[in-house]
Amino acid sequence: MEEEYKNYPFYDWVPKPLGIIFMIILFVPMITMSGVYSANSGEMMSGLGIQSEYIAFAGFCTSIGMAAFSPFFYELVCIRREKMMCIVGFSILFLLSFVCAQTDSLFILGLCSLLMGFVRQTLLMAHLFVLIRYGFGIEATKNITPGCEPTTEEAWDAMDSEKMVSQPVIYLFFMIIGQLGTWLTAWLAYAYEWQYVYHFMMAFMLAGIIIVFFTMPYHKYPMPKFPITMSKFGNVTVFSIMLCSFAYVMVFGKTLDWFDDPTIRISTVVCLIFTALFIYLEKTRRSPYFIMEVFQLRVVNYGIMLFFLLMVCNSSAMFVNVFTNVGMKIDNWQNATLGNWVMVGYTVGLIFAIIARAKNVHLKWMYCLGFLFIGGYALFMYFEVQNDGMYERMKWPIIIRSTGMMLLYSLISTIANQRMPYRFMSTWVCIMLTVRMVIAPCIGSALYTNVLQHRQQYYVTRFAQDYDRTSLETAKTYDQTVRGMQYQGKTETEAQNMAAMSVKAKVQVQATLVSIKEMAGWTFYGCLICAGLMLVIPWRKRNIKELTREYLLKNVNVKNLGRR
What topology does it adopt in the membrane (predicted)? Predict the structure, then answer.
């Protein structure tokens, strides 16, 4: 058996450097594949005649699918069948991408995005553990196998210290590939058509299948049965419906005027019913899909709180997008190109994490610093937002925010995993993805977009009082526009309407800029409060005496542990 895995997952004739290159190439579609792509959202909305909320909802469906996979995380990463998983997974993603490129149905788009997220996360996690073993000779599954936990305080602390570097490095790798994928999809939509993004990803799927088919041998499954029972997919369905209904309420609430719309009311009731059903199923099953006991761990609750605060504060990333779109009228490709500066911020965040580990800095100071960076970004935007903003200066707030995001994004799991039994690891990954990619972003985006809308309406009403014929400048501009429209053959009524619309557009721009400035100030104070909170929370470590072997292996089927 070990001979079969000597150069796993490749044939013996594949040299290791070439194998690592192949594995990195395979990561690209796994990370960037999605039912919708935010970078081509403008072209997609105009091509299909849909609202931006459709794009946002489908994106959250992808995240929900990724979270729904997570409770199966340990069982699947231990299966050593890379060729089979890649060929089947890429084939499914190919078909789903084709459907997404053709459909204009929100239901089909959301369903395909959900399935894509599930398959994509399956491939991503399995492939990551294979790459770690192949490239570095480390059997990473031992670090998540119940019963293999450290037995001394020194060993637990050493593992926490190691994670302060390893996790930022892994996140940096994923985030850079993700950002490059975003830029590439924006360029394809800008240079060609939005459907080309799906076609390009389908071509990448075929290339991945060809690489896997010719370079990897087929490995048989050595266990008598598959480790995942089909009955658990009922729990997956309940979990997915629960989160999809929640995302629908948060995304479409502003557009549909919240609970005045019957679909929002129905979705709210569905979310509550399926939440109760999910809790009931997990508490009554002998072999649960989601271990509810995990919420008894203090460190897990710390992780939930931190990810929630981070993603709500990080929703302020919309400031740059709104400012550049309203004040500078740039397109999606220019916006994505500007977004490439996040890679600099991610790298700076990694450097801070490495220095913190070398200096043995407590994690609370890193969390505090992360929120201060996001607050610094908000403060920069407060002073930068103006009528004559410069495109080139927008790289600085992006770098500042991404530095703080990287510090928090990559190091929160370190505190959440602190002396946590490995049997909770799969459930924690599910919680992390659910809070980090669904619940907190949904609430954060709903909060920021609703506040922006209300403040825009307030300032439009306030500024409009000064834009009448008593203002010489306004009257002069209005008259010039009327004459210009009449010279072009418009009737007097049409010319007056277009001149009024021109004045209204100026008021709208001013109202938007002032609203961003005001919200940036609120975000700055919110980040200061979060940073102060990091310093007053008692970050107590768990007593190692509680981690008995009986507790570590509670309800664990030891026969199914380890590599398969």
Answer: Multi-pass membrane protein
